[in-house]
Amino acid sequence: MTDHDVMDHGAADADLLLKKVSAFVRERVFPAEPDLDAGGPTARVLRERLRGEARESGLWALPLPAELGGGGLTLSAYAAIAEAEGASDHGPVALGSAPLLDVTMLSRHGSARVGTEYLPRLVSGDLRTCYAMTEPDTPGTVPSLTATRAERRSGGGWRVTGRKWFVSNAGDADLVTVLARTSGSAGDRTGLSLLLVPTESPGFRIVRELPILGATGQYEIEFDGVEVDEDHLVGDTGQALVVAGERLQLGRTLRALRWLGQAQRAFDLLCDRAAARQGTRGPLANHQLVQQHVFEALLALRTARPLVYEAMALVADGRDAHVEVGLAKTASARTLQDVADRAVQVFGAAGLGPDTPLPALFRTGRMARILDGPDEQHVSAVARRVLRSRQGSAVTPV
């Protein structure tokens, strides 16, 4: 077998895997979305059934480490699959890839005990995690102002006190990684640490659920003197922003891929509606203004997708990708909101009701422009980096 044959075989396998994931999400996850969105016991039973079907289909935890029971795909190989899974908010959970960020972080920065006790159960789906960084009384874009504190216990370990909000999936999480100040004062970039807290610990509680534009899944949580063992420190003491920055690079890129998947779903709905819906003058597809919606939506998708895949390639290689990730996150969020909005317009009143996924897709697009850093933060951060790189160089006026 030649090298060319090997490459062709690998590409064929990757294409087949992508088709299987796409079909699973389309045929099994999409129809279950109304019940999954509703939450409660029915949603839990349905979620476990989907996860079992994913395991039986050989699609479970594809990007997670093979030695822990995952599929072992590299980030580069997983990129297209992440887009396909992300066409539904429930896709990553149903297919077991949702804990990728936590497994990556804890594999690199967790203690031996954390690796042994938690990682295999995270990959198997027996444990669920969440990540608590943002606080009610401090701007989420300035983590150095974190007010949650972790103080040393006399017998070792930490005692955590504080409150976090907009914590995704905290309602049924078994573990929460919390950003807390372990030394210094507000505004110091050092002195912040990450601690892994079991949610069954005394003093941990769910304060309330925080629906976003009517959607569930976000929570406010409280730590009232929660005791945490020393070996549940994630990374080095006082170096949380290093670990968090690494996590954010991958996390934002993964979300950008998933938003692309949802934007593509909205685009497909738009086109199908335009071709099938009959008006007094034939199908909507014959109307120039509808054609403009199709064109602008396609342009947005085709413009955003290369930015996102470029960012993933750099993150996968461990290279600096601050500019590329900022561009990818902003472009994908805007694209999802724009394409979903155009699809709603072409559907008319039907696009506002419960019979299509468009309200949820539009809501996610609007949320995406704030969560994980608002557009304005990424615009400023990217521009500053670009301009700093040109300082001292001769710039010829145009």
From TrEMBL:
Acyl-CoA oxidase/dehydrogenase middle domain ranges (all copies): 130-226
InterPro entries from the UniProt entry: Acyl-CoA_dehydrogenase, Acyl-CoA_Oxase/DH_mid-dom, Acyl-CoA_Oxase/DH_mid-dom_sf, AcylCo_DH-like_C, AcylCo_DH/oxidase_C, AcylCoA_DH/ox_N, AcylCoA_DH/ox_N_sf, AcylCoA_DH/oxidase_NM_dom_sf
Domain of life according to the entry: Bacteria
A GO MF term: flavin adenine dinucleotide binding
BP GO annotations: fatty acid beta-oxidation using acyl-CoA dehydrogenase
The Acyl-CoA dehydrogenase/oxidase N-terminal domain, residue ranges: 14-126
One GO cellular component term noted in the UniProt record for this chain: cytoplasm
Cofactor(s), by name: FAD
Domain Acyl-CoA dehydrogenase/oxidase C-terminal residue range list: 243-387
Keywords: FAD, Flavoprotein, Oxidoreductase
PANTHER family reported for this sequence: ACYL-COA DEHYDROGENASE FAMILY MEMBER 11, MEDIUM-CHAIN SPECIFIC ACYL-COA DEHYDROGENASE, MITOCHONDRIAL-RELATED
Oligomeric and partner information: Homodimer.
Family: Belongs to the acyl-CoA dehydrogenase family.
UniProt-recorded name of the protein: Acyl-CoA dehydrogenase
Organism encoding this protein: Streptomyces gardneri
